[in-house]
Amino acid sequence: MKAKTTLAFAAALCFQSSVAETISQINGNRFLSSYAGRDVTKVSGLVTAKGPDGFWLRSTAPDADSSTSESIYIYSSTAGSSLAVGDIITLDGKVSEYRSSSSYVPLTEITSPSNIIVSSSGNAVDAVIIGEDAGLSPPTEQFSSLDKGDVFGLPNSASLISGQNPVLQPSSYGMDFWESLSGELVTLATPRAISRPNSYGDTWVIGQWNSTGENQRGGLTMTDKDANPEAILIGSPLDGTKNSQNTKLGDDLAEITGVLTQAYGFYRILPLTALKVLGSQSPALPAASRLTSDGTCSALTFASYNVENLAPDSAHLPKIADHIANYLNSPPLVFVQEVQDDSGPTDDGVTSANQTLSALTNAIKNAGGASYSFIDIAPLNNQDGGQPGGNIRVAYLYDASVIRLRNPNPGSSTDANDIVLSESGPELKYNPGRIDPQNAEAFTDSRKPLAAAWETLDGKNKFFTINVHFTSKGGSSSLEGDARPPVNGGVDTRMTQADVVANFTSTLLSNDPNARIIAAGDFNEFTFAPPLKQFLSTSGLRDLDDVAGVPATERYTYLYDMNCQALDHVFVSEGVSAGAKVEHVHVNTWVEYAAQASDHDPSVGVVNICE
Fold it and tell me: 398: which of 70, 331, 485, 577 is 20 to 30 A away, CA to CA?
């Protein structure tokens, strides 16, 4: 019995000490190496780059398989100190799969390098060029075979890359493409910025390759079943310099050379030195909206704007006011979201936003805009989510010289609005009033939709509005993370919220098929994701972008990661669809971070509300 145990131990020891002939064999043609946890010896390669905690090694005996990377990261803060780029070496070590979070895809690397032998120095180090001219370009639509064709499909996290470890298909899937080049020194010719940098200067770019979703500003717009896997993040430079934090959407950049790796949930290139901006898009800011009211019911303009935690003393309040007055042309009705109470984020029990809304309307008037009245319903303290103490809510600004609330009768924070039948057609029980505010499944720690009925001053033309700010995407996972499809944080709650609002509008339309309805705001979701697909199928409303024929690539109000995307939407009933138009005014997505007034762009539309 003892002899068998000893024999088994010897066999296991032999297995653990396997020799890998090449780096491509260690990497293999999957995301995770079959050598993980095993010792390897006499690994040969060319040192292509060095970083503060290790160096990168390229195989001197490449194979012909495009799915196996020829390079690998050697993790050691000391082993590379005596090495130089251009050295050809051999070493021993242990293969490891590293990730700093279980939600990320692991990085295959070699740790504890030893027995390093330099066989030659001063060898040429050429980067692998990624681009159409070099015949090496990333796929443009799908991230992973495990997504079943839709990164926003349900259920989320149906599988894990680390669990399934699929065979790489670099010509079909973006994550597979970048994984097949993991550890490689690469060059991107004529890159372009498609986002603003994060606080570390990390910037998303595309190179000289075919891409889908390109908008007129030079970014990539997320569309149905296409979240742009061809983009790549540029991380911290290896020489210790820092990337600029003022890079803007569409900026042209100098050629980038660096090593491709996986960190913090995304594939990225660590450039040898900092990014350099060669030029920016012009004009720096968009023109004012072309949509204006004509003073009659036949052309009423309205706008929707998430004003990002607006308090009376917010530094960005004057910019918001200027946008409404001079870029949105002071429409008679403005849907606003993320209005804080009078004490801002101070958690003191205050819930009224009268001072906040007064400060905003005064600033709009001072900027040359309309003289607005306002209406909101204060939430219960700390019950609507957002910044603690801020008590954010939705509100309306309206020009009382053009429209008025129909039979004003505001509800309380807990009063549920309803539809009441009358001789003149459906009316609201509360005007304005919150929709189903005590629905815990839908609106716990989330903003409640605010429905209102309006009319022209002669009382002849009635229309309804619903101002929404659905629950956030907090808790989402990376589009290039382990979970497939990625976790779309809050999706189940938004599904319930969408159903609540859809039931309200469909009930209104069942009582008056010609009811004029505008639902607008920050839906925190894409129209092609399940919550809004369901909303559109049951609400009786249409996407105003579709009605107006806005190109899919120009439908964006927000920048996040590699994508220009639309979280803010306008949905309208057939009663106002004829001739309706909408524009998304990119006063915030086109500028550098320091110049933006909000993280959202406003939208402005025009409809005919004549009876």
Answer: 577
Three-class SS state of 364: helix
What is the CA 340 to chain-centroid distance, rounded? 23
Question: For residue 366, how many C-alpha atoms fall within 13 Å in the half-sphere facing its CB?
Answer: 11
What's the rounded Cα separation, in Å, for the pair 171 and 210? 13
Range of the domain at 547: 300-607
pLDDT > 70? residue 495: yes
SS3 (DSSP) at 415: coil
- With respect to residue 589, please indicate whether it lies within any of the assigned structural domains: yes
For residue 424, count other CB atoms closer than 10 A to its CB: 10
Residue 541 corresponds to which tokens in the numbers above? 């409303």
Q: For residue 459, is it left (φ>0), alpha (ψ between -120 and 50) or beta?
A: left
Max Cα–Cα distance, the chain, nearest Å = 101
pTM: 0.94
In residues, how long is the chain?
611
b or e along 317-337 (b: 16 or more beta carbons within 10 Å of the residue's beta carbon)?
bbbbbbbbbbbbbbbbbbbbb
- Contacts of residue 125, defined as CB under 8 A and 6 or more positions apart, other chains included, come to 46, 47, 48, 85, 86, 185
Query: Does 396 lie in the same domain as 357?
Result: yes
CA distance linking residue 10 with residue 3, whole number of Å: 11
Give the pLDDT confidence score for residue 19 in this predicted structure: 52
522 in Cβ contact with 569 (< 8 Å): no
User: What are 94-139's pLDDT values in tens digits?
Assistant: 999 999 999 999 999 999 999 999 999 999 999 999 999 999 999 9
**Sheet hosting strand 192-193, strand order edge to edge:** 128-130, 185-188, 256-263, 266-271, 232-234, 203-206, 192-193, 252-253, 277-279
String of DSSP letters for 508-553: HHHH-TT--EEEEEE-SS-TTSHHHHHHHHHSS-EEHHHHHT--GG
As a whole number of angstroms, the distance between CA 76 and CA 82 comes to 12
* 431 and 487 together in one domain: yes
CA distance 334 to 375: 11
Residues 116 and 233 in one domain: no
Contacts of 537 (CB under 8 A, 6+ apart): none
